[in-house]
Amino acid sequence: MEPVYRLTISCPDRVGIVAKVGQFFSGHGGWIVEANHYSDPVSGHFFMRHCIRVNSLPFGLEELKAQFAPIAEEFGMDWQVNDSGAPKKVILMASKESHCLVDLLHRWHSKELHCDIPCVISNHDTLRSLVEWHGIPFFHVPVDPANKAEHFARVNAIVEEHKADTIVLARYMQIIPPELCSRYHGQVINIHHSFLPSFVGAKPYHQAAERGVKLIGATCHYVTPELDAGPIIDQDVIRISHNDTVDDMVRLGKDVEKMVLARGVRSHLEDRVLLHGNKTIVF
Amino acid sequence: MEPVYRLTISCPDRVGIVAKVGQFFSGHGGWIVEANHYSDPVSGHFFMRHCIRVNSLPFGLEELKAQFAPIAEEFGMDWQVNDSGAPKKVILMASKESHCLVDLLHRWHSKELHCDIPCVISNHDTLRSLVEWHGIPFFHVPVDPANKAEHFARVNAIVEEHKADTIVLARYMQIIPPELCSRYHGQVINIHHSFLPSFVGAKPYHQAAERGVKLIGATCHYVTPELDAGPIIDQDVIRISHNDTVDDMVRLGKDVEKMVLARGVRSHLEDRVLLHGNKTIVF
Amino acid sequence: MEPVYRLTISCPDRVGIVAKVGQFFSGHGGWIVEANHYSDPVSGHFFMRHCIRVNSLPFGLEELKAQFAPIAEEFGMDWQVNDSGAPKKVILMASKESHCLVDLLHRWHSKELHCDIPCVISNHDTLRSLVEWHGIPFFHVPVDPANKAEHFARVNAIVEEHKADTIVLARYMQIIPPELCSRYHGQVINIHHSFLPSFVGAKPYHQAAERGVKLIGATCHYVTPELDAGPIIDQDVIRISHNDTVDDMVRLGKDVEKMVLARGVRSHLEDRVLLHGNKTIVF
Amino acid sequence: MEPVYRLTISCPDRVGIVAKVGQFFSGHGGWIVEANHYSDPVSGHFFMRHCIRVNSLPFGLEELKAQFAPIAEEFGMDWQVNDSGAPKKVILMASKESHCLVDLLHRWHSKELHCDIPCVISNHDTLRSLVEWHGIPFFHVPVDPANKAEHFARVNAIVEEHKADTIVLARYMQIIPPELCSRYHGQVINIHHSFLPSFVGAKPYHQAAERGVKLIGATCHYVTPELDAGPIIDQDVIRISHNDTVDDMVRLGKDVEKMVLARGVRSHLEDRVLLHGNKTIVF
């Protein structure tokens, strides 16, 4: 895949944004290979994502940023531009359950997911061998009710040390403290094993069985201080019947969890997810 | 379709139920064309539905009931047996929205749904012409906050007068009073325009937009005194995106609502739904 | 909904298209509320759809066309611009089966589908009363193997007389002659009751039963001289099991057919479907 | 999970089968925990699957077979009975693509799939390390157009040596010779990366792109001498758009392939798949 710059923009909607941005790029010979726009009729906000061939522009990323800055200022844009050739650094966190971790590692290993994975952190040592087979360092950082602060200090240190820009909670099962949520706002992705907002918190499949629902689901979302209430990136469901026990739900749900998490992570890695308050625009 | 007797049974599980029932029918030459069983490992309860060709048995429905009663007693069965040739009497209730009503009427008119529809009741006169085109009587029973008791007394009178055994709330939008829920326990079917238990009550699509979910759904359930909390018969969802406004959700949701309601009603009409506390077994 | 001009463009891809079009509209104060782009990496072709608020431009449709023409010529564009306030004229054709026709008529009647329906044509008289209840003229144009030429001459005359720009075959079940396909290229929409390219031609559900597939489907496509081989607009499937007879498939398939047809027709009416050889871009 | 005997039966339908089988088990105190029946109205054939608790019966598998044989003979049954505690021996065959293999190995490793995997055979050495990490022997049996007979003789020898009763082609990409298909009739499971019968043979995603379909799929089926034409166990699809290149289809398709293959293999391992000519009954 030819490298592209990915420009994402959000700003108040008005006449001339598309023209101005289009003109900027075409004036420099920039070849746009992908373009998405969304005007929110409720908030009057405008969102945009453009991919421009790196090789079509006469300058590099820093110069692009410098040249684009005045336009951004004119329109009051929140904006970002990334080089698809500079993959994000993603730290995976897991507990004992392996399905989401195996899935993400395999997608990375087979070059389906373009990112660096500097390390995996887990509160159990169970998945060490699996992770290390992939040539990825594994940090076992135990946690118990008494040492939570210590645990998360250590997690935070590892994240900073590896200069990670994304943390994926691949069924990590611990509640992230608010200060960590805030520090990495829009960078911590979780998979919750229910179709949110139903069945927040612990044991969602037990809750689902209790209520007698006919579909179970999974939700990939950014983590915020309020439990399971952050901006949703993706969701999906699978049909169950009276015949499925909680154990069956756990098994069937795994397939939905890993698919939804992988799709959400992929969208995030490709800068397709724009935040808008507690919602997402996913191009 | 050849007429069949539909026997549904629920009782504590133990050895010999299937054999006893099987023996009973084969002893009389009864030809079983459909058989479903479910043993609930949690409650230790057993559920069964059999369809037996009417013409293969040497006796009619009343005699079948009489002969089967001792077996039912021996095993402590809750049981029912119906003749597929004697369609249920279903009263439809609607408000102004036509999509669910049109859908059900068309399925009935094209002989996809086997039931009698003695009348349609609505708190508005909007859909009269549509209903009457189908040759079905239409009762306009207005309702306002001041006359609810009167309204439901009239509804109840119409239901009793027509000896209905099922009431389908095809987007009727009024809360059924508890005594009516109790009187027609397991006989009143509602369609709620959300994936329950999310978004109970009013304006579920607005709630969905507020939360930023990526799927919207509909739930067909039996009505109980607690709002939107009755046993679920069927559910389904449809994918939406940031691009869909509440109006889009309303439009897209209609297709899910009518499909889920039609499937739920069909299952009910064919005696496929067995109640188990606040859950359903749907064979 | 505020009226918009819908501009669709296809042309060879190159630098500057988006900028030029954007500049054109912003130069006239045009407010773009929806914008879609697609660059086909295989053919090097570029496709675009823009919706611009009618009230934001200082001129009407004809002047817009005149002013835009030079740009279109410069880039070698195939292009169209329509006013969303001027609904398309759609003639529905049906046979005896009512499910697709009822569905489309209901969506039109409840203002979900924005179009005019000048008349319905059928080779049977079965659905007359249903159509006429909607206040739409019904033409019964019988057909038999001996009078096909005559039949289609009459159909063609009705289409021309009503200045229809779209013909929807809502389970019409007759093969359209090649000259009619060519005359109305990209304007005749059919629903085929299989997941094409499987089960072309007659009795697809029988073919599906024969092969033992586990999903059945429906395909909405533009009609071309080659049977069931035209550009696909939309498709969907539904799960079946060994338990479903051909009659069950026919019943279950109806729901998929009408949903897929309605979605395809809606996309067509909103100028979201661009033809690219035998494929479609659906924005 | 408590061990059960799984009895599967197919025979001409007639009165008394269910009763006779039920009586047999209840007479010996046999506790039926799962029961499925299907009467095919077209062929007049009857299919049944029962799970009976091992511990509820006074005898073992061999004695059960001996006692049941007279009943089987009376009704002309094709029948099988297996002990769920004696897992099947499954040999996996793969080529270079890892997604299906990784998925199956992970499900086996996490005890989701109950079977023994005596070895993996591949015509490439690519996946050796992955397989061996799981503690499973890996046989690299190269193949080229000149040595096909030799290759399959070696494959056959390995299968016989390990007394495998199931062979799963996890994207093995070689055509199995007819004599091997016949020898292991109903025991060789393949995943084909299209929604069969569309796109038989090589490069189905290229065929799908060529035709412009809006859904792509995968089919899990038993292998027979005719290419991609054996009895279908399971199928599924995923939505694509004009925006998806063949590479995107390959990527998206992988998720469907591995899910469908895993479901099909699971059904097979649990004796849920009964063959009926070129079709399957999947209980």
Automatic annotation (TrEMBL), chains A, B, C, D:
One example of a Gene Ontology biological process annotation: 'de novo' IMP biosynthetic process
Active-site feature positions: 228
HAMAP family cross-referenced by the UniProt entry: PurU (MF_01927)
Family: Belongs to the PurU family.
EC number: 3.5.1.10
Pathway assigned in UniProt: Purine metabolism; IMP biosynthesis via de novo pathway; formate from 10-formyl-5,6,7,8-tetrahydrofolate: step 1/1
Entry superkingdom: Bacteria
Domain ACT: 6-86
This protein's name: Formyltetrahydrofolate deformylase
Catalytic activity: (6R)-10-formyltetrahydrofolate + H2O = (6S)-5,6,7,8-tetrahydrofolate + formate + H(+)
Keyword Hydrolase: yes
Lineage of producing organism: Bacteria, Pseudomonadati, Pseudomonadota, Gammaproteobacteria, Oceanospirillales
